[in-house]
Amino acid sequence: MNTQEAVAVPFSPYVDESFAASIFSWDMKRLYYMQSYNSFPIPIRCAEMLVIRTDDLVRWALNRRYGVTRYEFE
Fold it and tell me: Is residue 47 in some structural domain?
């Protein structure tokens, strides 16, 4: 039986790097590896933070057959 991993991504336009790592249950070392060797989205600078576009996260996850659920912050 094949199981599909699923992630929940907020509808906000950006998330910081550590939040992006937590979406996939990765530590920062794993995140940097995935950015270097597996085409995971590279962060952009927004004010004083490095952020990743959530649309890029969703696109990356869907291309790797993750189930994706989008949600709103309350």
Answer: yes
Q: Which domain holds residue 14?
A: 6-69
Amino acid at 48: E
Indicate the pairing of strand 14-16 with strand 6-10: unpaired
How would DSSP label each residue in 17-38?
HHHHHHHTT--HHHHHHHHHHS
The larger pLDDT score, comparing residue 12 to residue 3, is at 12
- Write out the E strands in 1-74: 6-10, 14-16, 44-46, 49-53, 67-71
Q: How does pLDDT run across 18-52, given as a tens digit for each residue?
A: 999 999 999 999 999 999 999 999 999 988 899 99
pTM summary value = 0.87
Angle, alpha carbons 41-44-45 (nearest 5°) = 160
